[in-house]
Structures are given as C-alpha cells and as structure tokens.
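Question: what's this shape?

___
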Amino acid sequence: MTSNDLHPVPALAALGAVSGSLGATIVGAGYGDAPSPGAYMVLTGLWFGFVMGFAVWRWGQASLAASTMTVLITWFAWEAAVNLTIQIDRPWPQSIAIATAYKSYLTGLAAGAVGAIITWAGIALNVGALRRSSVAAAVTVTGALFGLLFPAVNYFDSGLVLLLPWQVAVAMMIGFNMPAPQASDGHDRRILAI
C-alpha cells in the first residue's frame, strides 16, 4: 500500500477535529439579528465545508465544481442548524410549558439532525456510494445524537464541547460509507484493499 491510499475514516476524523477546533475559536462575523434568520458564525460552517469538500475531491469526484458545491452546501447546513437552534432555543409562549433543560436537548437533537442531513445531501450529490437511505439515516442519527451535547455549550461556555465531537462523528460516519481506496503495489498496479 502506498501513502496515497489513505482511508477516509481516520483522515476525516482528524480533519473534523481540526475543523471543530477552528470553528470554536475562529467563528467569523455574523450577519443578522437573532432571533431573525441570518448568517451566524460564518467561518465555523466554512471550516467543516472544507473538510467535506476535500472528502469529495479525494474519495468522490476530483472536480473543483463538485468540491465547491459540497463546501457551499455544508456551509448552508451549518447556517440552517444555527438558525433552527435560535428559533427553538428562544423563549417560548407560556402556553407551551417545557423545562429549559429539555428544550436545550430538543434544540440540539433537531439542529444536529438538520445539519447532518443537509451535509449528507451535499456530499451525496457527488459521491454515489453515499446515495443510500441507510447512509442518510446513519449520518442524520449521528448528527442528532451528538447534537445532544448542545446544553454543554452553556455549561462549559465553549462551543468546542459540541463542535469538536459533532464534526468528528459526522465526518467519520461519512468516511465509513465512502468508497475505500484501492491499494497499489508501487508499480501503478491496483490491488484490492483488504
């Protein structure tokens, strides 16, 4: 096997960790006034978009257009999740009684699922192996479950406790379902990966 035969899972996990860390520290400007829809924490979604764009380039279609489209759709997924979070987590009418803790978990579950399914859709457009309902479900459930870390953001006063594990987990789930690279014997002859 050559060094070019990097498997998607460890590569995407490492890049997801870098992206999650960058997203928690270099968030970028926001455009809009909460609770109105807007573009919030612009760079956070872009960092993860670069990870997904790289995945498409490396294990899907090595095309600038496909990778760029994936980056943009992943960024949109982030913004959709953030806007959903703002809408769910804001004060509710008194007629709807729900404990604040439960509301935070509901927020994380919903936003995590929305961000994951849109991210999956963006990458699945360009990687045929991901176009299965089982993959969509696995990525969405992973995003929803790791979204349950949302209440920890307020407790620890850091987005890192949500962004790092969520991005690593979603990137890994996508990596698990990417086409595995074929091994090379070093003489430009491809052999099946074991």
User: Anything to note?
Assistant: The CA atoms of residues 116 and 143 lie 5 Å apart. Strands lie at 183-184, 190-191. The two ends are 10 Å apart (CA to CA).
